[in-house]
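Notebook entry, structure prediction.
Reason for the run: the old model in the group folder had no record of what sequence produced it. Starting over properly, with the input documented here first.
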Amino acid sequence: MEWKEIYKKRLTTAGEAVKLIKSGNRVVIGHAAGEPSHLVDAMAENAKAYENVEIMHMLPMGTSSYCAPGMEGHFRHNALFLGGSTREACAEGRADIVPVFFHKIPLLLQTKCRPDAAMVSVSPPDAHGYCSLGVSVDYTLEAVKQAETVICQVNRHMPRTHGSSYVHVSEMRCIVEHDAPLKELARPKISDVEKEIGKHCASLVNDGDCLQLGIGAIPDAALSFMTGKRDLGIHSEMFSDGVVDLAEAGVITNRMKTLHNGKMIANFLIGTQRLYDFVNDNPGVAMYPADYVNNPLVIAQNDNLVSINSCVQVDLMGQVVSASVGHNQLSGVGGQVDFVRGAQLSRGGRSIIAMPSTAKGRVSKIVSVIDEGAAVTTSRYDVQYIVTEYGIANLSGVNLRERAILLIKLAHPDFRPELIGFFEKKFKCKYKG
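New structure, fully documented this time:
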């Protein structure tokens, strides 16, 4: 059957499509800006028809109404990462979180958590019947491959991206046409403290380096201090508008990359409409799934890979906490450890963890001991550079006593006396920082 006939035959409404979801099913939802909000809303409106439907996805951009109070018994959110609309549900026991490295999520969907249904957002089909997953290939592509029922929201606002982002119409069980602008992540306001951190991070980046960046003010601040660099490249789980600035300025050229020369590589994208317009049909951007992009052995094939990520807390041994505050889960591991390890396997690579020295000036982020209940994200064996507004510490090959001295120097002066007291008690010597 010709693909256009298949498309017409499988075209339906969101309300009809979600009726294919059955009680007890596991449903995987497209990630971040690739979330098919129209389908998710229709599923939530049909809640009374379901019992114990498991919902899996990472960063939510919609309202996540399936884990709102009163949805118990109909849905159970099993999160791979938490965001603003799911964090409270997890804290109140209405949702759970799976600890898993980003690069292992596609394998999880192939094995222990194989989905019954996948709901994803795609671009309109091309002349050959292929739709693009656009800004969310990550685990979304694997969900499409593994699910018995694939429900696609065809959205003309979804950019067509190159790489491994395509799904053919014949792979779709139901097709729902619904046009809606992609959710945007506004560019962060960068404080003076974050500017200073960004300047330190940028000082560790050389011409020709390949970058991985997380989300937020610190990565954007670091990029803003790289305007004088030359021939930078991108191999990152995601990137946002700050990368577009440097690409359009000719700073990011990808000419020196030893893997995918000439191309920016990512598995998902999130930012403003400017970013989505930039990647649309851009042959210089290639999207691949997380089990490739985030695999440390693949990352390491990029020489001089520099990873820049942020965190919540670092103790004096160099243990990094990024996903929780004490017992309260904030997010998830994401790709931090994937890139910390990949960067250090890379020839000439560097791994940077950057953060303000305090949380809103009230609490030190350099601590003697991590908070009770907090989970270590990057271990003391994996950590390399730590950066705050007060400077840079390279912890590689440094013993615990020397690490503590270096980290105390990065702490806010108001909190150093307490840290020094702990240091002297632990190491039984005078602090001579």
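Summary: The radius of gyration is 22 Å.
The old model has been moved to the deprecated folder.
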